Amino acid sequence: MSLLNIDNIHTYYGNIHALKGVSLNIEKGEIVTLIGANGAGKTTTLRTISGLLKPREGKVTLSGEDLAKYKAHEIVYKGICMVPEGRGIFARLTVTENLEMGAYSRSDKTEIQQNMERAFTTFPRLKERRTQVAGTLSGGEQQMLAMGRALMSNPSILLLDEPSMGLAPVLVELIFDIIQQINKEGTTILLVEQNALMALGIASRGYVLQTGQIVLSDSAENLKKNPTVQKAYLGME
Amino acid sequence: MQSLKRFSWTDIFMWIVGATLLLLIVIGSTLTLQQGKYTTVQWFDLAVFGLAQGSVYALIALGYTLVYGILRMINFAHSEIFMSGAYLGYFVATSMQRNGFLQENPLLGIVLIFLTAMTTSAILAVILERIAYRPLRGAPRLVPLITAIGASFFLQYTFRGLFGTQNRAYPEIDYIRGAIPLFGDFQIQKIQLVVIIAAAVMMASLAFFVQYTKTGKAMRAVSEDKNVAALMGIDVDKIIVRTFVLGASLAGAAGVLYCFMFRIVTFYMGFIPGLKAFTAAVLGGIGNPPGAMLGGLFLGIFESLGPTLFLDGLGIPAPYQLKDVIAFTMLVMILIFRPTGILGERLSKTKA
What we know:
The structure holds two protein chains of two kinds. By secondary structure, chain A is an alpha/beta fold.
């Protein structure tokens, strides 16, 4: 049984049919990437998994449990945490307060303290700036904060939406290194990226999404060699 | 010349209006002080009264600002939440007065009045949020605003229907009557002292709550981004309800303090203080709790000292009757020259 299984979901924005039967599954310990053009439905897929949107058809199951009856905030307690597109940090809260909000679903004080220490070891920059208001951080630091905050809930699956967006190439490298490190420490990752080359570089498998449908799914190696993928997403002729 | 082109004729006109008002204030104040009609003691009394009145405004203003901060909605029914707390507190106060409980255990009695008022207000706010506001959460912003005005009238006329239109005299509590002599001729009314201290304690607790508790931090997080807050496991609906409870309890307490000061209870007693508190919230920068406190205190003092100070010297016969004119003129001026309010800048900066 897969850790996360998405079975034929149809999600709508009002009357707009955004996801037209998306199915995918993620095994424990994997990094899986979802690539696709703007408007293909990548973010919608993540929002459906995290409960912000409810699918009209199909279901999302975590270790066999149907998530349909849970609201977005309850799904965090089940072990899925999402880092939203554009990072979504609380700009007027301090770095520490942001991290505390990430641990909102946790009540064990020592566990929260340990997670805080872990976040500071993974992202030393955050430790330097912990009393600072998050709105004053640079883009890269905000991305680190958003990821550190999501890890505060000890998720079994981390959903990352465009972590490289708007970052300098050096920082993108750093963020991707950290993603791999987080994965090695035992967190399963579903990565949504426009930067397909980078994403396929660290993922074990990938799905290609096009206008609300999965058109390809294969190992990352094979996807990189696939001529259609090369042409459409890797910018090669 | 280039830089002048940025100003329109309306701007120039408004600057002239503003400058004229400022000039009138300066001339008025100078004349009043020169005439020396009022003694220092009288000025002191006015200032203390203004501070007490301002404390009440500040407590109500916090309710407007907390709800606005989290829902971007002006809860116009807040003035009726204030009134309902005061009204139910009145019933408890009169019955305790009649059976002598209030004379025997004044402190316990006062605490009971506060508890009744705050609970009533809180319960009413929760019901209001559940049936009138929550179903409209996704609607355009004008819709909940109109609903709030509707809810305000609904509550006012429900109280009118249930308890009649008469003005009811609030029982006098001997325990907080009279004045405490300070130095020389200076003295301070016990009631005003109680109001100022009670309000200060409540505002300090609120500031602590919002800054340091888990729920307080979650309130700030929800006010920034509801979706992301939900992604962190925060139950947004629950936090919104708690915000309403907090704001309403302060309004209920403000209702009791208002009654202690003015000793009158009616079904429409919420309207003017509510409007004033709303002014105070805008004055301080709506959505910003410290701003609401500051705005409330400022408006209270301005309203109390202003008429006498600015208008008496200009030969206006009954300046105190014009206190509402002064308060609302100030609101209009603030909206024109500093739409973000006194502390509003920080808010708009970090949001951008």
